[in-house]
Specification:
This protein is 32% helix and 11% strand. By secondary structure, it is of the alpha/beta class. A 6-stranded mixed beta sheet has the order 7-6-5-8-9-10, sandwiched between helices. The chain has a two-stranded parallel sheet with strand order 1-2. The chain has a two-stranded antiparallel sheet with strand order 3-4.
């Protein structure tokens, strides 16, 4: 779920094996009993050997040179389409680290190949390269030097012969013990994020793409200022403060009358930076009294994901919630994003005593009309999702006046169907009804979807496993 440009910051990747436990609670209890809740003194960490510490300090002060052939070899491992440039830097850093530990003066092609093998990379295109060397091993004992044959051209008398033999040479050269890195498995694909399914929002740090209007309206909430490109939506305070900094310089060659004025330049103008206004809306009409026996969260998830990706505004109509201010009325929650905590809290509300379905649909109708037709709203498309069994037991008039006027009968259902017919006449609204499949009056959701002009999808009951799931 992490963006690939963050993963590419890691120079070394190793595939680890996670030990699975059948009883995690039992393992934690045994661990607590063994450690005595901190009463037993923890063992001191084993210090790093002096030889290794000295070698690390020496390598930190060593800065080898990178050859052009090594750079070209790095590109042979990572230069392909849709690959982030940080992978080149990561491979170069790993190769350079090996050279610093080795103590060589420059980084060559063989060092790049050694680093590539460590992380499981294979060259994309072959090129002329030096023969790859193996990982440095301890230097063997020096063999006794053989006497060189006499030269054909003897040196003239009186010439000083240069001594090339070493003054002192130990019997066995000292070297640090090599500790091989034992990997439990090989890396089949060092970059699994290239083929994995995207479980995050693409370009999460960018503003959403405008689908219906080419120009953003200047009515979103102010989140900052930026250099003005036009004379619309000018940030006056920031512009005046910017111009005030340069007044002493600008007034040097100005007249006496101009010195009394504030001299402005086109570079002084700043405009407001505003958050984008949502062009799409997700309307949820949720009947909490019919959700106890169906897996409605799974069926609702695709619509919530759509609202998240498209940065759509969200309106949640709660019908029959337990904590409603008036159990005869539905309640509305407006949010600019699906990530607002009030939306999550509204979805998890408990069931109440009554079902004012007609009032909930009427609230949704009024909200859609205002968002699509009134004022300067930029909402161009709305998706209406209704989860209900169609059984409304509170008439619309009772919800408006706040009290029941008997007789009630089937007025609640009739009012809900009449409001649904008005929703059908709205333009740019895609209606969907998720049917919880009630055991009694199973035809009411079908009638409600027909009057609303909505597509209908059945919600599977709890405990039912669909084909292919297990």
């Amino acid at each position: 779920m992490v963006s690939p440009h963050l993963l590419d910051r890691f120079a070394l990747r190793l595939k680890g094996e996670v030990r699975k436990t059948t009883d995690r609670a039992k393992e934690i209890l045994e661990l607590i009993e063994h450690q005595g809740l901190g009463k037993v003194k923890k063992p001191e960490p084993v210090p790093v050997p002096i030889e290794i510490r000295d070698k690390l300090k020496k390598s930190l002060q060593h800065h080898p040179k990178i050859t052009p052939k090594a750079i070209a070899r790095i590109l042979n491992y990572t230069s392909q389409k849709e690959v982030y440039p940080r992978r080149d830097l990561a491979l170069a850093r790993l190769s350079w680290a090996n050279v610093r530990l080795e103590g060589a003066d420059e980084m060559g092609v063989n060092h790049v190949d050694i680093a590539a093998r460590m992380i499981g990379l294979e060259p994309i295109s072959e090129s002329t390269k030096e023969p790859p060397n193996q990982i440095p091993e301890p230097v063997p004992e020096t063999a006794p030097r053989e006497k060189e044959p006499p030269s054909k051209n003897p040196k003239p008398s009186g010439a000083i012969e240069k001594i090339t033999e070493s003054v002192f040479e130990p019997d066995k050269p000292e070297s640090l013990p090599s500790i091989p890195l034992k990997l439990t498995s090989t890396l089949v694909n060092p970059y699994p994020e290239d083929t994995a399914a995207v479980e995050r929002e693409a370009d999460s740090l960018r503003l959403p793409t405008r689908r219906f209007q080419s120009k953003a309206a200047d009515r979103g909430s102010i989140i900052g200022v930026e250099k003005a490109k036009t004379l619309q939506d000018i940030a006056l305070v920031t512009t005046l403060l910017e111009a005030a900094k340069y007044q002493p310089i600008r007034r040097q060659n100005s007249t006496a009358k101009e010195k009394q004025l504030l001299l402005l330049s086109p570079t002084d103008f700043y405009s407001y930076r505003r958050s984008p206004v949502a062009e799409q809306m997700l309307m949820l009409v949720l009947d909490h009294t019919c959700l106890q026996d169906c897996d409605w969260q799974e069926e609702l998830l695709p619509y919530l994901s759509w609202a998240y990706v498209e940065r759509a505004s969200v309106c949640l109509i709660q019908v029959g919630a337990a904590k409603a201010n008036n159990f005869l009325q539905a309640e509305r929650i407006m949010a600019h994003s699906i990530l607002v905590p009030r939306i999550n809290a509204g979805l998890e509300a408990e069931r109440g005593k009554a079902t004012p379905l007609a009032h909930g649909l009427d609230l949704g109708l009024q909200t859609l009309r205002h968002a699509l037709q009134h004022g300067r709203s930029t909402v161009q498309q709305a998706v209406l999702v209704v989860i209900s069994d169609g059984r409304g037991n509170v008439p619309l008039e009772a919800s408006r006046i706040g009290r029941i006027v008997p007789p009630v009968g089937s007025k609640g259902v009739e009012d809900a169907l009449r409001v649904a017919e008005h929703i059908r006449k709205l333009d740019r609204v895609k209606a969907v009804l998720l049917n919880p499949q009630p055991k009694q009056y199973g035809d009411l959701p079908l009638k409600l979807a027909e009057e609303m002009g909505a597509s209908i999808f059945d919600i599977p009951p709890l405990g039912i496993v669909e084909e292919g799931d297990g």
